[in-house]
Design brief:
2 copies of one chain form a homodimer. Chain A is α/β, with parallel strands linked by helices. Chain A is built from 11 helices and 18 strands. Chain A starts with 18 loop residues before the first strand and ends with a helix.
Chain lengths: 411, 411
């Protein structure tokens, strides 16, 4: 059950020079399933990441943060390793040892230092990582390394996702083309058992040290941090951007004429990937865009968008195709803008002007709202009437299927 | 579908001297249904209230706030009027006129000033209040006034509640007994169409002007503000405490020897009523107590309790009787305590110690967690290990029925 989510086609996923992927079946949780992914980068690649703010973050997230701080800008992060089937979260000291042991084993296979490797895990939590299975199968993944394995990589990081998620974008700059390809997984921001949102994007442009970290944070806020299925933040969420520097384009500063072009393409790609997670959201039957404008700050627009996107009442109304618009107004009202003048608030459902100056638009007909509600792609536009800031979020509805998936998962 | 919620019995609901209730059937939304309630107080009664913080608050809430500020401590709020079937919210200027017209009509019937009356509405929003029906039926409600009409009053304020909610407490003080009786409605904190949590408590003790407002806020935070069904805050939520001063007990200050006795009884009664709302929560099959201790501040304990209580993942796990404990840890982790040391966190499910020092308790057996999860009354105890503050919240699970009720309400 996905919402307008086509399967990625292998020939649409462009190789990124200097970036390879190798896959293995390690039998971590189930047999005969791609569950181990190794990715490698040419020396000199810039790597940046954004990680979960959850205080119960998983051991690999802690290791990632450290290795990235040490080596991400020095061009010395040269490999990544991802296992599914086990999140290595809530695993205490042993979890940390296992994450480091994974790095050490892959370092030996690739003749690197363990600090040059970023580890990722996703799957069930509170269970020890089957470290032997991982270590024993790393050589198989390494032997499989190839620039053309994007679709396999997308499949290898899936947990409850019903479809692999991957996309490519190419942008022409004054110094030549830049190719970027990305994969992600999520199926509900969260997987029933605290798996993860994982996102990886590689591009062949070069970046001067220090440029990529700020850009990655900005892109994350506009993409993976702008989607929500159920508001739960996982212990393992990670988003990594890598730049191999193998193209003719080399960006030295944000003032570089090509920076904004590459930035824009990266935002486009990250948003495409992020929206795929919503379209494959647990139980999703509708894809909903919430566009909040007229705010004093982006932050307050975000508060309103999140309040609407998280409201179970709003989400069940979308599921029922019921234009129950008071629920959206109420969510705006409790979003946390203490001095909001509700008489300035306007709200549209698709092209239908529903709430005018804080009350029901006299021209609004319920049949018009009903018509919009019955479509599978719905935009809610809210104008707070107090400034020019704006923020867009994407979410899905709350269905019986969501309850079933999350109630029945382990039984 | 309620969770261990007995029907209130008429003879258990004690009259409060100086406080009368009268009920009418005004046909506001449906015929042959008690939907209009008038309550009167003897002159000199102290009245205090706590109202929704939703910026889209309903017209009657705004009128209540004004009249209460004017007359609540002066002993001149002498009547309240509640209609169900229509929330008079999202109704703009006309809504305000209608709320004031209701006060004016009742003032004429009772020979009071309109400013001596508090109006309340609950029901559908974004629809004009059928003001004629209300005004025409106020005399019937007035003719029905009686100190013994508590059960009828509880029935008259119901919307999607499946049962009336009422309770009485009597406390012995050194100056004689104090009787307090209360009613409330909620059925989900929110009703599908943004009705309301309404709570009214009357007691016969006397209070010096100014004492009751602070006490009412404190009691609300420990009762009606400590419950959640789905995290949505309605446009009409109101909680009113009234003291008629007809008993022999007269409290002059917080240092009065009887103040703490009366305070404690009031908290007990308000918590009884608040828990009834959870037990009748939309789709509820489990009653869940979340007790967070060991915090530096009450506020941070509340953040954690709310994060756990609002998590759809946690709530569906309770519905499924699945001891999926990582979900609770994850909610603790994202609750917003930036410097939380997760290695200090302990968590119990009922009497079973599940998470020890931030990880799985080595002695924990899933069968023990399963045993607790299968009961209908579950306590989650969390120790943050960083202080002595604590906060308790009550909530229910998230079931298929919740989605059905809220998705199907208007179709």
């Amino acid at each position: 059950m996905t919402v307008n989510l086509p399967l990625p086609q292998k020939d649409q996923l462009k190789p990124v020079k200097g970036f390879q992927m190798g896959i293995a079946q390690a039998g971590i949780k189930k047999a005969n399933r791609k569950d181990l992914l190794v990715m490698t980068l040419v020396p000199g690649s810039q790597v940046a990441g954004v990680f979960t703010l959850n205080r119960f973050c998983a051991a690999p997230v802690q290791v990632c943060r450290e290795h990235l701080a040490q080596n991400g800008e020095r061009g010395e992060i040269l490999a990544l390793v991802v296992n599914t089937g086990n999140a290595n979260a809530g695993t205490g000291e042993q979890g940390m040892k296992d994450a480091l042991a994974t790095c050490k084993a892959l370092a030996q296979d690739l003749k690197l230092n363990p600090e040059q490797i970023l580890p990722f895990s996703t799957g069930v939590i509170l269970e020890p990582l089957p470290i032997e299975k991982i270590i024993n199968n790393l050589p198989k993944a390494v032997a499989d390394l190839d620039e053309d394995h994007w679709l396999d990589a997308a499949q290898a990081i899936m947990t409850t996702d019903t479809q692999p998620k991957a996309s490519s974008v190419t942008v022409q700059t004054s110094s030549g083309p830049v190719t970027m390809t990305g994969i992600c997984k999520g199926a509900g921001m969260i997987h029933p058992n605290m798996a993860t949102m994982l996102g990886f994007i590689a591009m062949d442009a070069g970046f001067a040290p220090g440029l990529l970290a700020a850009l990655t944070r900005e892109v994350a806020d506009l993409s993976f941090n702008a989607i929500t299925i159920d508001g739960d933040t996982s212990t393992n969420d990670s988003f990594i951007v890598m730049a191999t520097g193998q193209a003719t384009v080399d960006i030295q500063s944000v003032d570089d004429e090509n920076y904004s072009l590459v930035r824009k393409a990266l935002i486009t790609l990250a948003q495409q990937l992020a929206k795929m997670i919503v379209r494959d959201g647990e139980g999703a039957t509708k894809f909903i865009t919430i566009n909040v404008g007229g705010g004093k700050t982006v932050q307050e627009c975000r508060l309103v968008a999140e309040a609407v996107a998280h409201s179970p009442l709003v989400k069940t109304a979308f599921f029922a195709s019921d234009p129950n618009l008071g629920r959206i107004l109420a969510a705006i009202g409790y979003a946390g803008i203490a001095d909001l003048d509700v008489n300035q608030v306007q709200m549209w459902l698709g092209d239908v002007w529903v709430a005018k100056d804080g009350g029901r638009n006299p021209d609004y007909q319920e049949a018009d709202g009903q018509r919009v509600m019955q479509t599978s792609e719905i935009t809610v536009k809210i104008d707070l009437g107090r400034g020019s800031a704006q923020q867009t979020m994407w979410t899905c509805d709350l269905s019986h299927e969501y309850v079933s998936i999350n109630a029945d998962y382990r039984s």
